[in-house]
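Posting here for the record, re: zinc ion.
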Amino acid sequence: MITKSFYSVFLFLAALCFCNSAIGQSNMEYDVVLMGGHVMDPETKLDAIKNVGIINNRIAQISSEELNGKEMINVSGLVVAPGFIDLHVHGRTNKEQEYQLHDGVTTALELEWGIENLKEWYATRNSRALINYGASVNWPFERFKSIPGQEESVNKLHQASIRGESSLELLMNTIAPSANDPLTDEELNKTLDNIKATLNEGGIGIGAPVGYLPESNPNELYQVFRLASELNVPVFSHVRKPDIISIQETIAVAVLTNASLHIVHINSMSLENIQLSLDMVNDAQNRGFDITTELYPYTAASTAIQSALFTEGWQDRLGIGYDDLQWVATGERLTKETFQKYRNEGGIVIIHMMKPEWIEAGIAAPGVMIASDGMPYAEMAHPRTAGTFSRVLGKYVREEKVIDLMDAIEKMTLLPAKRLEGIAPMMRFKGRMQVGADADITVFDPNTINDRATFEGGLEFSEGIEYVLVNGQFILKNGKIVSDTFPGQPIYGRYKK
Ligand SMILES: [Zn+2]
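Prediction output follows.
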């Protein structure tokens, strides 16, 4: 569907091309031309050998005719796709973005948790980011700020954000003591006011990782969803517990309040019930509710060992034992003793708890997006941090033929762009290989693309991603990063003042 503003840019460019046609299209000089690639657009279903002309930050021409450019790159034999859009990352710096761009990602957003002190964080990324960046409003932080007596901790987090040293783990550890305190009416009202204020800083909806505050009062969640509905902003939620009842709870709240809902990593939340979860999301959509979901293509999860997931009884709830836990700092598998030790100390753990067929079901399901849930950098961080998108294209498209290439590209580009268009109108220009769209482009070899990060060997750049352009600028060429280039731009929600 062509939106109004997208259409006006299209017309502008069409007029531009028309003027130039008087002097012959072949005389037009583009900034960059990608020659002879296999161009794929999931919206128009364009799937053909074409030349792509780029002017400034936009795609200005897609043609079978020869095009002239200041820079001409032969991409024959390669797929030219919209840059991948990752709705769910926890890395906040270029350290993680370097892995992401080698995986074809041109926009990486922290929407599950959101980021505290959003204005300060956006400021630290200005003109420094490799790829596009953005985040939602962090509900756990906004509620923490509303509790009297936390001023000192809030101030420390604020200072860390200004210095560019904020991190999810620092935030989690700071708010942990109050995570399960019920809010008074006054605190709840303050929380809602805080959320509104941070939407004005450009927050892309509301991050509601309820699973990390599983004792939080259902009324609080309900009021957050009511606010989201009133303001027409989406809620991105990690549901209360990894079980089907929690999926039902979240969908019920969204349906009752008519809020837009995106359920993150449905694979690790549903476990053996993934098909039922997918059916519920699908039924909600068929009844007109704006409810979507995503998954990452791995059979292991990853989170902080001190989180609520590991309260008494976790083995039964998750159907696993100590040996299924892998300590990120060393790569070792845990025992009863090391589990206790590390749970007291805190840190990140990988949880081997899913079956391959559950992941396949999620990848095959129409409308389900691919999102990495990429973790903050560590040598032995969960491989999804570096390999999610290449893994889908290598393992699940080429090798196992779970879905075809166009459907896979749609799940990484058009679907996430459309998910965000309502809250972040600039996303209307992303996720598409069309004249007038932003030149965020990923060029890859469909015969060699593969993830290389593993649970045993740790993070590695993916292979087969040959070129990446962000806002018309190359950031990856012949598989190598272009140094001293920072084309990443902020993505903001529409309430930004
Ligand atoms: Zn999560």
